[in-house]
Predict the 3D structure of the following.
Amino acid sequence: MKQRHKVYGNIKNTDPEAYRFITGELDRQQKGLEMIPSESYASRAVLEAMGCIFNNKYSEGFPGKRYYGGQDFTDKIEQLAIDRAKRLFGVDHVNVQPYSGSPANQAVYFALLQPGDTVLGMQLQHGGHITHGLKINFSGRFYNSVFYGVDKQGFIDFSQVESMLKKHRPKMIIAGATAYPREWDFATFSKLARKYKTYFMADIAHIIGLIIGGAHQSPAGKADVITSTTHKTLRGPRAGIIMCNGKPSDPLRAPKNPTKRDIPTLIDRAIFPGLQGGPHEHTIAGIAVALKEASGAEFKKWARQVVKNAKALAEVFIRRGFDLVSGGTDNHLILMNVTGKGLNGKEAETVLDKIGISVNKNAVPGDKRPPYSPSGIRLGTPCATIRGMKEDQMKILAQAMSDAMENHKSPKIVKKSERTVRQLCRDFPIYPEL
Ligand code: DSN
């Protein structure tokens, strides 16, 4: 088989079938545009770190306190990632071992709550995450989940948040979402959490990069615990991170009569040995590299452009008569109800796939349709912005997407939109060196 790419030669020689699928995905990503707001393109440096030699190493425990020998460099790389995150967020303690965002959230429940405790989170259908209390998720099965949502305009309904706090006296409140297009008011969540004496967890998986880049307020100093993935707007490897304040003590000893000061140790112990075994040090190396990239001036510019691009897209969609939840966006994502245009979210996802754009079907607040065929789609700008696209390209994209959705039954119009998208992808390449 001819090698079509400049990389992956070893895979091609060992496993031609796997090589075909890996390079197929590479071509797909290069020729089309990812507009799923939870996705990004990791840099070559991050990808190299993830494929590095740390993959071979076990390192159960924490830097300086491991259960395996040979830790000279695992300790250093993990500490590097921890220190970089501490500096960027101004927090006392960071754990970079969670395998992803869901295990990070699981660890917070495990560290701070007892089974049966009440947790107040955002309703899934209003934008919350499955780990924020969905009945069939661990968070809804082992804890008593109650929910807040958005008001008729699509913004967090703080009067409902407060009445739920008053009524249910939860042990923890979560601010965070997978499909909320507006800025989080972490200060108000913090004030309410203090008033009702509940732990406050901020799940910033979607917006971590915007926070680092100064394009969204930070929950640091306001939330008791902050969780995130590292592969969304942080542009790192697929993994998780937990940040908190307090006084870290020996993670191998359970604190006696723990207080809020012991949250760092409780979190560490919940991750290991509570939920996980050996940390993935190759992934942690990728987190270290991503955090280094995120601390530069270029990243700040990118984060701000992500938001400008989302606003530019939103403007065109609104002009074309699409129904955007909350009437616009403050961040990297847009959530829209497409049923007014004669198709459902699944159909919109399919037609946009045809023109070379990946989005995802998504429920909208109050959706009456089933989750696999909901009324809306969710789309975002992190990837387009990494490719260097700006407001002008967003306008072209939004018109092409609107044309395709409105005329999804016309192969000619769909094809025309596809040509526009493919040309933009050629003009703004990703991974050209691969
Ligand atoms: N799957 C993620 C998202 O797409 O937002 C959340 O975990």
About this structure: The chain is about 45% helix and 15% strand. Residues 38, 101, 129, 178 surround D-serine (CB under 6 Å).
